[in-house]
């Protein structure tokens, strides 16, 4: 059997028998009914993805800050200096008034 | 464009553009006339790649849901129908790739009419009918055994008689890739035909 000829013949058969273009009854109504639910689902999926990304990045930041605090040299004096300086700055005007009196 | 004047044609085109603009503005109901107008083409294309009506409907449904979701990417430079056909062909290709296991069916279960058609082809290749049901079934069997890319190329190039450039546009493959895949697809098809019951026909 000549395979090339058989191939040509079968392709000719496929060409001669184009598939039908009939559409099931009310197909467009079915599609329209699916669209709004799909839009809602898409919105929910988008929100879920956004929240997961936000949660992941928040955890990463918390871990980095935790590691920074944990591994940075502990210096209680610096911390008290900072709070003292902050207090002095905040109450500078009051102190000046007291000194003036 | 037989039976349609140029003015009517422009009016139709304008209406289509207006419908798409309305959908993009949030009026989903304007999508329905587009579905109604182009569904026959979508179904005809899907029937080239799937046999069961339930599968064909699934493909058509997927095409329209994708079209609705991706309508923002339609820039209006080419007709909507071309954009939709690209989407349809790609959806059909995805369908073929998802159903690759179905290719394993053997030729040993050829029906009697299919065997008869083949026997007639061997004895009188010139007179054998191209419209016989058996021939149609045999073609469907052979196409089902092709790999997804081979089936797509054979369908578009040989059966639908499209140019290589058109296929490249429809599939997003490069022109050289289409040519390579067409060459391989023809060879693959001959290899499949060679597996027909040898004791009977070869």
- Assigned CATH superfamily of the largest domain in chain B: Winged helix-like DNA-binding domain superfamily/Winged helix DNA-binding domain
How far apart, in Å, are the first and last alpha carbons of chain A? 120 Å
How helical, in percent, are the residues of chain B?
A: over 70%
Radius of gyration of chain A: 37 Å
pLDDT below 50 for ≥5 consecutive residues: which ranges of chain A?
none
E-strand count of chain A: 0
Count of domain modules of chain B: 2
Write the H/E string of chain B, N to C. Answer: HHHHHHHHHH
Rg of chain B to the nearest angstrom?
Answer: 20 Å
Shape of chain B: elongated
Pairing-aware structural class of the strands and helices of chain B?
mainly alpha
Averaged pLDDT of chain A: 83
Number of contiguous helices of chain A: 4
**Oligomer designation:** heterodimer
Here the CATH topology of the largest domain in chain B equals Arc Repressor Mutant, subunit A
Helical content band of chain A: over 70%
The CATH architecture name of the largest domain in chain B reads Orthogonal Bundle
Beta-strand share of residues of chain A: under 5%
Shape, principal axes of CA atoms of chain A = elongated
Protein described:
- Chain A is mainly alpha-helical and 101 residues long.
- Chain A has a domain at 39-69.
- Helices cover 82% and strands 0% of the residues of chain A.
- Chain A has 4 helices and no strands.
- Chain A has helices spanning 3-16, 27-71, 76-90, 92-100.
- The model of chain A has no long low-confidence stretch (mean pLDDT 83).
- Chain B is an all-alpha fold and 202 residues long.
- Chain B has helices at residues 6-24, 31-49, 53-69, 80-98, 112-123, 133-145, 148-159, 164-171, 175-193, 198-201.
- In chain B, helix 2 crosses helix 3 (53-69), helix 5 packs across helix 6 and helix 7 (148-159) crosses helix 9.
- Chain B has 2 domains: 1-98, RNA polymerase sigma factor, region 2, helix turn helix motif (Rna Polymerase Sigma Factor, Chain: A, Orthogonal Bundle), CATH 1.10.1740.10; 104-202, Arc Repressor Mutant, subunit A, CATH 1.10.10.
- The mean pLDDT of chain B is 84.
- Chains A and B meet through helix 1 and helix 2 of A and helix 2, helix 3, helix 6, helix 7 and helix 9 of B.
